[in-house]
């Protein structure tokens, strides 16, 4: 059981258990031995719900990845395909089945195709595939079935509006079945990613954010260069360094990680130091253990202490790896330009640093992040500047990138100016998005996650709670998409009587992706003394500037081979 | 089936349920039975699926729920309509029921309702139906103002690789949005000659003016790369040198190649760097950086020098470089330029502080000494004495300066 999911107001284990129950029930329906053929995109997310041991309990004997050709031989009664509902996969499944049935010498197994349940994370397609919004709405309906109807819905953005409309309509269609569960969430906030295009482009500066930016966190795991983690046995010369990347799991079940993940990276060193002293002192405790009872107690603590020490070692290594990068000149120069754009410095001219980077043929994604940031902070680039960057990029990296640039333009990330009015400075001033001298060690504002820049999306969330969106009507109108408020009727008697000092709970749903830094900022808000609000975050996917831009780059071939 | 897979919930399904009696519908002469043998239907393109479905007898016979269902003829095999519907849902859905929408108005209303419902799978299913039952002209005309539906259709045609129809569609559209998707297909053509010809064919598509010029440039570049490749490979037969292939490389990379191997050619040839610069309108800065990098790589220091000089009516003069001299020094140093060469360029750095830093970094002692002398900074000069070699010319020079009573040191 994932104990760390039970902490806090909302017991996320419920969700996990429901999924596991569904899965178990389904597996039991197919009596007899089974083999599962996986769409490899799903193995990660499924791993968050169930391990192989669970599947084994339900007679899953073999597992394969979905590939063209024949299903490998397996003497099982059932073969089950777990796939995303995608057209190109259907053909592969058909091919698998066709070839297998005719080649198998054993009794032909039964074939069943299963589409992954709708509440698992789905990607938003650039081709404006509205299906993902539908899944989101459906997912939220399912959520309400478990956690109770959410009485207030707020939203900003086109997609938010669509999702809310779908939710309300679906609810009407199921009218008659009253949900008697006491509501856990007081408010639902739906936010379009394109209401805040700036935040994902900026380099995250929290510990977890930097790990994601540099190494990438997938399904709670990160792969790291192994050299720093090589174990040296005492007295032996170190053996050949491992070549396999070191895979580490990162979640709040690990005490130290829970403590440092949301800190600004500049505050991590001190935290690790402090922890090292505590652990050291704990181990020293063995000298104080005199009686048998005391020794016994010390020994019983050992596993916990050893785990803590190993955790400290891992994170010290990771912090060292990150520090090498954050103290480099390239990182500093890049961050400087980012902050210049964020504070509105010369966003209307060709930036010399960007020019130099293109001339040096730095990675294209780095260039794209910067030019997009300039464009967003300027509400579109001056035509001359836009044309210049475009030409330089196409000439240096290849003409085929017209496709990427086109996608970025469609997403409003990199576009020529249409009107001369740039609202960004007004938005920045009104919502206090830039705070000089942000306190990184003991923050008092969400801007610490970017060392000065407060994520727009989180600021909007913060203002919604207090003093409310009425006070920023003008600014909201400057941001894309409609904003709205809806109420859902609760059955009589379910209205919550709030205890003195009890927090309200808001579910913030990011449509189109969210960064770890934004999550850290929201957690910070939850922990603030006088906030009176706890935030739970949901999203269609986790992203950073690099993965986001990559998803908007055009891929020539389809992913599944 | 009670598994939790995607159910295609939409408005119009409900509409269907509440409409005319199901019994009448199935039995009426208006109903055209859907069969997989239908030659010009979309499902026949999913050949494997078709054959598979036909051969899965076990699925066909299975029927979990004991509901009473209508029998529908399908491929000659009697099959419960419930199973048929389930099978269709697996692939692509409720096309069977769509036959009821006959008039253009009904069809468009159907399409608009589906778009409003936001379920992509259903939108695509309806589009397939419309594609089958409407003429191309009417379909394209009606889809143009319906961006969402149009996107879905293009997405579908791309996935099923219906190139012919895609091309027809793009040519009909008056907006510029989708021609690029056609252009994109060049990436899947491996052979360089075929790719070049494909790019040529794209030139006639109605792109936006900016995109049009980029596609034109791409074609011109590709054409040129093929020519240069062929000529160079032929010339190379005698030599052992393995040169980097420039096929499908970006423009600047191609320019770099030409600066390496075709630098001194006259402006009339395809591979002359100056010709490339002019044809593709490469910026002065980009050209400069590329040429500098290439000549430095070959340690052709005189060529490097020539980049900076320009003739004016008095004779030769040093021109200011479009690149800061610090960058120049950086590039030269990366290519292991000797100190004497580096020195010349470090000396040209305007900012004194920067000049000193660079000079110290690259051990251009003379420059450091001269700059401290110019700044009249005695302390720093004294400090620097320790950094030069004992007994060297530089040490003597420093001593001379320190002992020079005519210099008015500031410290």
TrEMBL record, chain A:
Belongs to the STXBP/unc-18/SEC1 family. It is found in: Late endosome membrane; Lysosome membrane. This is VPS33A core subunit of CORVET and HOPS complexes. It is a peripheral membrane protein. Gene3D superfamilies: 1.25.40.850, 3.40.50.1910, 3.40.50.2060, Syntaxin Binding Protein 1, Chain A, domain 2. InterPro entries: Sec-1-like_dom1 (IPR043154), Sec-1-like_dom3a (IPR043127), Sec1-like (IPR001619), Sec1-like_dom2 (IPR027482), Sec1-like_sf (IPR036045), VPS33_dom3b (IPR043155). GO terms for cellular component: late endosome membrane; lysosomal membrane. Keywords: Membrane, Protein transport, Transport. The gene is vps33a. The lineage of its organism: Eukaryota, Metazoa, Chordata, Craniata, Vertebrata. It comes from Cyclopterus lumpus (Lumpsucker). GO terms for biological process: protein transport; vesicle-mediated transport.
TrEMBL record, chain B:
Keywords: Cytoplasmic vesicle, Endosome, Signal. One of its GO terms (biological process) is vacuolar transport. One of its GO terms (cellular component) is late endosome. It is found in: Cytoplasmic vesicle; Early endosome; Late endosome. InterPro entries: Spe-39 (IPR040057). Residues 1-20 form the signal peptide. This is Spermatogenesis-defective protein 39 homolog. It comes from Cyclopterus lumpus. The gene is vipas39.
């Amino acid at each position: 059981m994932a104990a760390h999911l039970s902490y806090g107001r909302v017991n996320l284990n419920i969700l996990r258990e429901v999924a596991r129950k569904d899965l178990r029930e389904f597996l039991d329906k197919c009596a007899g031995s089974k083999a599962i053929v996986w769409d490899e995109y799903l193995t990660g997310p499924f791993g968050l719900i169930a391990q192989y041991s669970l599947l084994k309990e339900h007679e899953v004997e073999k597992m394969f990845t979905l590939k063209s050709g024949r299903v490998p031989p397996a003497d099982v009664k059932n073969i089950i395909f777990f796939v995303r509902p995608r057209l190109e996969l259907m053909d592969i499944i058909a091919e698998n089945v066709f070839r297998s049935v005719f080649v198998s010498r054993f009794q032909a197994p039964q074939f069943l195709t299963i589409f992954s349940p709708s509440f698992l994370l789905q990607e938003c397609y650039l081709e404006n595939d509205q299906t993902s919004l539908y899944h989101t709405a459906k997912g939220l309906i399912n959520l309400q079935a478990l956690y109770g109807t959410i009485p207030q819905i707020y939203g900003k953005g086109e997609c938010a509006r669509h999702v809310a409309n779908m939710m309300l309509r679906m609810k009407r269609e199921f009218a008659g079945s009253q949900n008697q569960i006491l509501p856990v969430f007081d408010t639902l906030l739906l936010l379009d990613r394109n209401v805040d295009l700036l935040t994902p482009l900026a380099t995250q500066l929290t510990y977890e954010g930097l790990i994601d930016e540099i190494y990438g966190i997938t399904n709670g795991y990160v792969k790291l260069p192994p050299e720093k983690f090589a174990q040296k046995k005492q007295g032996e010369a170190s053996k050949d360094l491992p070549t396999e990347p070191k895979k580490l799991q990162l979640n709040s079940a690990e005490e130290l990680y829970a403590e440092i993940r949301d800190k600004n990276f500049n505050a991590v060193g001190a935290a690790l130091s402090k922890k090292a002293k505590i652990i050291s002192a704990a181990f020293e405790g063995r000298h104080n253990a005199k009686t048998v009872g005391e020794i016994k107690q010390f020994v019983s603590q050992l596993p916990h202490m050893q785990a803590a020490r190993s955790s400290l070692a891992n994170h010290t290594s990771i912090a060292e790896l990150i520090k090498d990068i954050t103290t480099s000149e390239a990182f500093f120069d890049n961050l400087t330009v980012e902050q210049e754009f964020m504070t509105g410095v010369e966003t209307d001219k060709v930036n010399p640093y960007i020019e130099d980077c293109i001339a040096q043929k730095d990675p294209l994604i780095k260039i794209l992040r910067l030019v997009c940031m300039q464009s967003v902070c300027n509400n579109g680039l001056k035509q001359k500047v836009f044309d210049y960057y475009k030409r330089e990029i196409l000439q240096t990296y290849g003409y085929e990138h017209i496709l990427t640039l086109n996608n970025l333009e469609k997403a409003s990330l990199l576009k020529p100016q249409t009107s001369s009015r740039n609202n960004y400075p007004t938005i920045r001033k009104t919502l206090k998005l830039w705070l000089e001298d942000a306190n990184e060690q003991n923050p008092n504002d969400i801007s610490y996650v970017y060392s000065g820049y407060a994520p727009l999306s989180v600021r909007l969330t913060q203002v919604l709670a207090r003093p409310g969106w009425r006070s920023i009507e003008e600014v909201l109108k400057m941001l894309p998409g409609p904003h709205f408020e809806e109420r859902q009727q609760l059955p009589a008697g379910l209205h919550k009587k709030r205890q003195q000092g009890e927090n309200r709970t808001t579910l913030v749903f990011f449509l189109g992706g969210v960064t770890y830094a934004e999550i850290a900022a929201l957690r910070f808000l939850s922990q603030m003394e006088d906030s009176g609000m706890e935030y739970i975050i949901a999203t269609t996917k986790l992203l950073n500037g690099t993965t986001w831009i990559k998803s908007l780059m055009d891929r020539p071939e389809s992913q599944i081979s | 089936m009670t598994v939790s897979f995607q159910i295609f919930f939409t408005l119009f399904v409900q509409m269907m349920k509440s409409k005319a009696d199901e019994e009448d519908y199935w039995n009426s002469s208006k109903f055209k039975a859907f069969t997989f043998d239908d030659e010009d239907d979309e499902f026949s393109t999913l050949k494997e699926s078709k054959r598979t479905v036909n051969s899965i007898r076990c699925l066909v016979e299975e029927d979990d729920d004991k509901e009473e269902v209508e029998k529908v003829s399908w491929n000659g095999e009697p099959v419960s309509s419930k199973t048929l519907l389930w099978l269709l849902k697996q692939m692509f859905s409720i096309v069977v029921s769509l036959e009821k929408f006959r008039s253009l108005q009904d069809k468009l209303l159907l399409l608009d309702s589906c778009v409003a419902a936001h379920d992509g799978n259903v939108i695509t299913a309806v589009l397939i139906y419309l594609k089958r039952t409407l003429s191309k002209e009417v379909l394209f005309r009606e889809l143009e103002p319906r961006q969402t539906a149009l996107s879905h259709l293009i997405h579908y045609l791309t996935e099923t690789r219906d190139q012919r129809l895609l091309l027809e569609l793009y040519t009909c559209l008056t907006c510029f949005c989708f021609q690029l998707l056609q252009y994109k297909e060049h990436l899947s053509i491996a052979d360089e000659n075929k790719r070049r010809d494909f790019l040529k064919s794209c030139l006639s598509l109605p792109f936006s003016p900016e995109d049009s010029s980029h596609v034109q440039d791409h074609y011109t570049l590709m054409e040129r790369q093929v020519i240069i490749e062929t000529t160079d490979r032929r010339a190379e037969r005698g030599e052992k040198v393995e040169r980097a292939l420039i096929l499908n490389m970006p423009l600047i990379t191609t320019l770099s190649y030409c600066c390496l191997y075709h630098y001194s050619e006259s402006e009339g040839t395809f591979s002359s760097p100056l010709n490339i610069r002019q044809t593709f309108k490469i910026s002065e800065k980009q050209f400069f950086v590329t040429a500098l990098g290439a000549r430095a790589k070959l340690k052709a220091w005189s060529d490097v020098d020539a980049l900076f000089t320009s003739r004016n009516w008095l004779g030769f003069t040093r021109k200011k470089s479009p690149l800061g001299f610090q960058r120049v020094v950086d590039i030269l140093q990366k290519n292991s330029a000797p100190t004497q060469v580096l020195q010349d360029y470090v000396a040209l750095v305007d900012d004194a502080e920067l000049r000193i830093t660079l000079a110290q970094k690259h051990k251009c002692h003379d420059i450091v000494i001269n700059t401290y002398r110019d700044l009249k900074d005695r302390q720093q000069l004294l400090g620097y004495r320790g950094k030069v070699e004992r007994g060297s010319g530089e040490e003597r020079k420093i001593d001379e300066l320190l002992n020079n009573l005519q210099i008015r040191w500031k410290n």
